[in-house]
Amino acid sequence: MYNNLYEQAKERLSELIGQAYNSAVADGVLTIGANGPSAEVPKDLSHGDLSTAFAMQAAKALKKNPREIANLLLERLDLSGSFFDKPAVMGAGFINVRLSDAWYDAVLNAAESEDYGRADLGKGQRVMVEFVSANPTGPMTIGNARGGVLGDTLASVLDAVGYEVSREFYLNDAGNQVEVMGRSLAARYEQMFDENAEFPDDGYHGEYIRDFAQAYYEKTGKREVTAKELLEFALPQNITRMEADLKRYGIVFDRWFAESALHESGYVDETIALLTERGYTYEFDGALWFKAKEFGCEKDEVLRKANGFYTYYAVDIAYHRDKFIKRGYDICIDVLGADHHGHTLRFKAGMAALGIDTDKLRFVLYQMVMLYKDGEAVKISKRTGKAITLGNLLDEMPRDAVRFFFNMRQTDSRLDFDMDLALREDSENPVYYIQYAHARINSMLRLLESEGAPPPKVRAELLTHEAERRLIKQIAMYPEEIIAAARNYEPSRINVYLTELANCFHSFYNAVRLKGAEAETLAARIALCRAVKSVLKNGLTLLGIVAPEKM
Description:
By secondary structure, the protein is an alpha/beta fold. The chain has 19 helices and 14 strands. Strand 10, helix 12 (about 340-355) and strand 11 form a beta-alpha-beta unit.
């Protein structure tokens, strides 16, 4: 792992404890039989920065009291040239150590690199993150906004830990919802000439439908048009608007994959034929069914209706087969709303029936969003048109605030988005608090430089204040947080981490002097501030948020 100083320290302490154990065995004071030691960051840091419970874990195998084992190990523990000092036996038999100045120096030297926090966890595996994937029948909604930033940030996190990542939008440009849009357009077009013309009960009521109908009339002057004509005019324009809104939101997809392409290429037919060939389909009541129950689902699923049309499920199986077989992705991640939970078993069943390793198909399910403004919930309904769209939201508040707030909770938690808080310019607003820390450091460094301050110099032995040590430890946690965010598919960890880093910096700033400090101490503190600034920028960039130079 690149520059993961906490991980390196834990691995090295485990090695040193292992060497001490081997030495004790060689001396005849302990016997062979204990499993290898491991080291962790203890919950209570008052007694040490790293700790191992090896003596207690080995007590049964070695048939000795844990503290006796720990003391025998401590006598043989050689910390010379390592990142540690001040070893001690604590409690029932923990061996605790303090991190040395050399470790703090290593953290500060590593942190200024743009690559700080990057790792090789993915080893170049090809990963597709599919997210948003909304029906192209209207504006981008707030639900799309949360899934968008979660998918985009997750893709950035996975890239940071060594995966080759692609972002994809699956465009549902075929099927019932598109047909409903066509009928809605046709009804609004007819109402321009006959206000009593009937509108479909399930139609889309948004003003954008009227706008498209009016625009088509202004372009063609036709009195009689078909839903197909209107759809061919409006659908591409709506997709272009969706793409523009997402780009404004900071999301650019590597590919927009059209569902219609699967039908036109015959890939859906080919996929369903393959399922039939493998013995996983049957006909009933004129429809073609998939034996989903054989793969753990509650019921079998229709693939092709009696009218000859494929279901969404059949097309989705073909689409995922395309990802794995035709395009060769190692892992595919679908970012979906929690109401799509049933899709997880059904999609995996389809992959299993095709002989595709189901572990390669992963899901991130996120809970619903509630917007609040002036203390009142904002109602959202795409079909009735009574909604704040993503475009509306970006008109009202900065993109950085929107992206941060939509990613600030774990995916399995419902998100209450306080629009008033997101606009505040004070420490209560977390994104402002983080960005202000970055801008404050930048302004401070410029001022110190103009006043002839010494150049930065990493010297941890001069940074002994509790606030300084806490800040460096927080910097050191960054690589581990990226790894955890990638492994758990939980990009909100980066938001939480940056908030705590900003908090540690502000505490440091209020606790120690920069202006007026002795020259060597000032140079060390400047180096520390530069490291914090670098990590803040690094993390904000992962979130797709600007790190401002001034505010």
